Amino acid sequence: MAAASLLLLVAALAVAAPDWTDCPTSCRCKWTSGKKTALCKDGAFTRLPDSLDSEMQVLDLSGNSISRLGKDAFKSAGLINLQRIFMRGTRLRQVHKDAFRDLIILIEVDLSENEISSLDPETFNGNERLRVLNLSGNPLRQLVQAQFPSLPHLRSLEFNGCQLESVHRDAFIHLAALESLNLKSNLLRNLSEAAFMNFAHLKSLALDGNPWQCDCELRGFRDWFLSSNLQSISLSCSGPEELKDRLWKDVAREEFACPPQVFLVPYPQVQAEAGGNVSFGCHVIGDPEPKVTWMYEGRPINHTWLILEAEEGLLDKWVNISVFNVSDADAGIYSCIAKNSLAVVSSNVSLVLPEVVTATTLSKSDPGLVWWASLVVGVAVSCSAVCTIVAVCCVKSRNNRRRQNMKASVSFTDQEKKLLDVSIATTTDRGTGSCEALGAEMELLEPPVHITIESEPLPLAVFPPPPEFSTSTLPAGAFGNIFISVSVSRDPTLDTSRCPDLLDLSHRAKPVYHGMATLPRRPCAVPQYDNMGPRVTAGGSSTLSLPDSTAELPPPPPPPSCAPLTPEFVSL
């Protein structure tokens, strides 16, 4: 009786226990190769199914639309006993680094033909029994340093058609047991042989279908690959042009070369002061080793230059040149030329010095120009280009035509304008005295005025020169930062005693005046006398300028004998 009851209880429990073959409608659960397998291909799943038996060992979700695997994705679905996961073509874009955490018996993962653009290096951390990983058909672009954690049992790794452009030399450093690596149909131009030195068991390496650039960057890998006996298909060059479509084995290793690259410091122009020193640095990279030479204006340099060669290696070197006591003869174009078996490459640097240009702006033969003397105000243009012009002259004229052409100012009286006409006060050396002439007749001094222009050639635009310095008299490009000085030869026969120095004030120090005229001080209410006549008005004007003045004028004083003027005269 008791035995019958026990049998009934066992039967009831068996009926009540769920069957692992009970799957979601879109899945089929069955035994496959001795494994509990859930076949959920093309089942319109958008996330992992959560109603599968926890004892499921194989899960095939290929053809669904699962775009993301989040943290602990499989563990959260109760699928911790999975050994094989197939998610081919599921539009997968994001894979969390802990998506496969705690799947300690996982041995195979297929994530091919998805949209994974990057893979965290910690992905698959803890899945130490993983043997097969397929990532083909994902736009990964690059494999970074230590791309995978320690996977001591990984045997096969697939990257077919992943658009890989670069593979770090240490990308597979933790995959010592790797036997098969597929890098076919990517965008690889070169590889480092160091990336494969850790593989003691590598038996297959597929590399065809890549645009290999057969230059010095690929030479070391090419030598290793041809000697490794791993090639199943002969590889060919896609570049450079002279090696295109040639097989690696048919190209001598010396032809895997790189043209020189030349970098000048400083570049492209150096401005130096006369008498100074200047150095140029030439950094050259190339393989095979380039031969480096310096040229000046297309000619080999001579003993006036010093070449300093600082070797950093045969394929990466500096060749420097120094020029001492720079003069005009050293200005010009210097060329650093590098040559190897593949090409000749050069780069230029210009050494420039400030230019000096002299131009004559006044001529005695010019009948229309009888008087030229002024102060040309400096004009500031932009924050980096300044043009300052100072012109100072001392001349005499034959007539008073200049007086007629002079523009009157409403702030000047007639007497002041007369004074301005004859008082172009200038000085270059206060020790030699001034040469102002207060006579009615003036004549042009000889020789004509010469103006010296110093310019520094700058790549910036500057304010255009005044009309007196047109391009018809000066060479093109002479104006950068401009400084003008004017010198006039003095007439040794000139009687300086008839030329009182209007700026020679005894009561003050002698500052340097530039193009200043002397005018009477206005606030004078008492009559005073000077060589310009009496001044009696409160504003400082002469009574001769008053239209209806009937006041009796005192007799004029005798002519002054070139004595220094009184402090009542000030300079504007």
From TrEMBL:
InterPro entries: Cys-rich_flank_reg_C, Ig-like_dom, Ig-like_dom_sf, Ig-like_fold, Ig_I-set, Ig_sub, Ig_sub2, Leu-rich_rpt. Residues 553-562 have a biased composition (Pro residues). Residues 1-16 form the signal peptide. Residues 260-350 form the Ig-like domain. Residues 528-572 are annotated as: Disordered. Gene3D superfamilies: Immunoglobulins, Ribonuclease Inhibitor. Keywords: Disulfide bond, Glycoprotein, Leucine-rich repeat, Membrane, Repeat, Signal, Transmembrane, Transmembrane helix. Pfam families: I-set, LRR_8. The chain crosses the membrane at residues 369-395. It comes from the Eukaryota. Residues 563-572 have a biased composition (Low complexity). This is Peroxidasin-like protein isoform X1. It comes from Nicrophorus vespilloides (Boreal carrion beetle).
